[in-house]
Amino acid sequence: MSKTAISAYPKTGAYPQAPTGQRSLCGEILNFAVPTVGIVGMGYVGLPTALSFMDAGRKVIGVDVSRLRLAQIQRGDVDLLDRDRDRLRGHLEADALALAESGEALRDAVAVVVCVPTPVDANLVPDLKPLRAACRVVVENAVPGQLIVLTSTTYVGCTRELVVEPLMARGFTPGVDIHVVFSPERIDPGVASHRPEDTPRVIGGVTKACLQRGLDLLEPTCKHLFTVSSPEAAEMTKLLENTFRAVNIALVNEFADASRALGVDVMEVIGAAATKPYGFMRFNPGPGVGGHCIPCDPHYLLWQLKSERRDSPVIDAAMKAIAARPSKVTTRITELLADLGVPPRQARVHVVGVTFKPGVADLRESPSLDILEWLLRRCLRVTYTDSYVPEIVLAGHQLTSRDDVPPGTDLVVVLTVHPDSDVVGLQEFPTVLDASYRMAAEGVVRV
Ligand SMILES: NC(=O)c1ccc[n+]([C@@H]2O[C@H](COP(=O)([O-])OP(=O)(O)OC[C@H]3O[C@@H](n4cnc5c(N)ncnc54)[C@H](O)[C@@H]3O)[C@@H](O)[C@H]2O)c1
Fold first, then answer.
1. Which of 50, 270, 316, 404 has its Cβ near the most Cβ atoms within 10 Å?
2. Other CB atoms within 10 Å distance of the CB of residue 208
3. Whose CA is nearest to atom 32 of ligand 1?
4. What is the pTM of this model?
């Protein structure tokens, strides 16, 4: 595999090995005979990251506070592409992966990668509890010679505040006896064509030596590494990427509304605009955004700018529009039921797809849950189909995914179309609201 480090600094040296038997600050004997990477947070990002390191011949210690998650990983009962589940099984059989609840296990690692969640709370303020807790454990267990890589999306300056300064308070000197970089993740769960090893990765070190250690660690797992001058530049890069996406999704949703008002098929328009080879990037409208990135990450920036008493009106408007998108879908449902002459209390509505995006079982922040809950509070009978989510408990109701659309259904609402979904047959139903914009325009109505 040819690897290109798009690096501002020359890449030298082999993968750094701490001396075997070195005594750690904590007084334990280290065993670096096999390069071991510690991963803190074995979720949607941490687990595939672990697979990449193990593919590259490293051993991995996966640390997670959730015993349930660790047990699921051990059983291979995880939301991964089939090929990645096979990779996990192989590495478990080869004893390449050790799982632990306690951070003490990290003292045996030459490098520690932090991939814990960075959500927002009900007031859209960053909830830094998991990240603070993880960084505290990493710092407490840091040993001389170790490299610490923060990958969780976060505010600008976080790496320095939560990792570098506490390490210095423990007596470490970054770039000398400890190394720290920020390198944001670009994993795209559920999308087979976006392989992490083919996706360029950005990295910023606290010092040049830190950066070099980071490049050496990541290079076997990623063909293209792009260096920036500081952890702050890398933190801001991730915020730009996801804010860019949020703003463009808000824009294309607005175009969908405008196109319907003007009697034009927005998907035809987007397809046509996408023929422009420069200056245009395709985004698709939908029922809203979900997952752990787009609904959350731009709020890290907005929160930080607010603390600096600075406005960011474009981002602010985009995030408000994104948050309001599911209510546009429910308004449309109300209109369609009225057109059908069915009172909502008697309506039978079937929802297709409840995860926040195709190909994953991830329900975090899924706009479908808002829409489903709204329906459950108003309609006689609400059913759903999602091959990735066999059961849902919502608004006091327990629903089981169905293979078919129940006879007598008044309205079918399509929210997410998984790669294995057959939605073509749905067009036979009298009224189909395609909020996913993935179906052919004939025979469906749009938001
Ligand atoms: N999911 C994505 O598609 C994606 C893509 C790129 C970047 N990211 C970013 O990566 C980070 C991780 O996201 P994720 O989707 O993997 O989250 P996740 O919720 O899937 O996984 C996080 C894991 O961390 C564990 N955890 C929480 N606190 C911990 C702690 N203190 N110590 C050890 N483990 C802890 C949780 O139990 C969970 O298993 C976030 O900052 C996210 O914004 C996510």
1. 50
2. 14
3. 134
4. 0.90
